[in-house]
Amino acid sequence: MRFKNGFEIHCRLQWAGRVFLVLLLPSVLAKTKLSSKIKMSMKYYDIKACDNVVHYFRFTKVDYRMVDGGDVVDTDCYVDVDVKYLKMIFVQLQRCSGGVGRNQCEYFTGLKWTTNLCELATAKNMLWTPFVDKITPTFKCPYKAGFHQLRNATLDLSSFEKEGFHLPWERYIWKVHLRVLNEMDQIALCFNGTFEVRRVLVRKES
Questions:
Q1: pLDDT digits 0-9 by tens, 106-121
Q2: pLDDT per residue over 140-175, tens digit each?
Q3: How far from 52 is each of 55, 107, 177, CA to CA, in Å?
């Protein structure tokens, strides 16, 4: 049966369009590949300046936002003493099961650094790098007292794992205590925080 020319041309155009899509699709997929990886992300519950020791640090604002499956921190704060150089950085971790009450948390570990701390604080690929890199004005020794901001700050726990420190992050809620001393043994920075760690699947187009 012979169809009119218009209908015949329409059918041929449809067929040609389908062939074109079949030929084009592999090249499009080759350019747009979906890749995925597991990222260790932070869930922050609170970050507060220490209230049981004399120190020279205070928050005026602390906010948390979720970005790419994990929390980032925005803070406004004051350091009320000059820092010529860092004399000591001390971190203590407690792990908590089922909550963060006094009877639910136990001491886990303490870490102390006392050598080349100005260089260590600004080193790349460290636990604290994505925190320090977000400080305005840029952190470097000597560091002047005054108003400081952090935007989109977080911790990079994957750096611990890359160095072979595989801790049971996901099994607990963690409480951290951080204390930083300047050259005069003054506590220039002191805060306590509570956080959880989650592994998040991140998909990217390349």
A1: 999 898 999 999 999 9
A2: 999 899 999 999 998 887 776 776 667 788 889 999
A3: 9, 18, 12
Contact 141, 79 (CB under 8 A): no
Distance CA 95, CA 100 (A): 9
Are 124 and 203 in contact, with CB atoms under 8 Å apart?
no
On the 0-12 / 13-18 / 19+ scale of CB atoms within 10 A, 117 is middle
Q: What is the pTM of this model?
A: 0.73
DSSP for residue 170: G
6: Cβ contacts below 8 Å, ≥ 6 apart: none
Q: Which helix (H) or strand (E) holds 191?
A: strand 187-205
Residue 196, helix vs strand vs coil: strand
Alpha-helical (H) ranges within the chain are 5-31, 117-121, 129-132, 158-162
Instruction: From 130, 118, 124, 129, select the one nearest 188 (Cα to Cα).
Output: 118
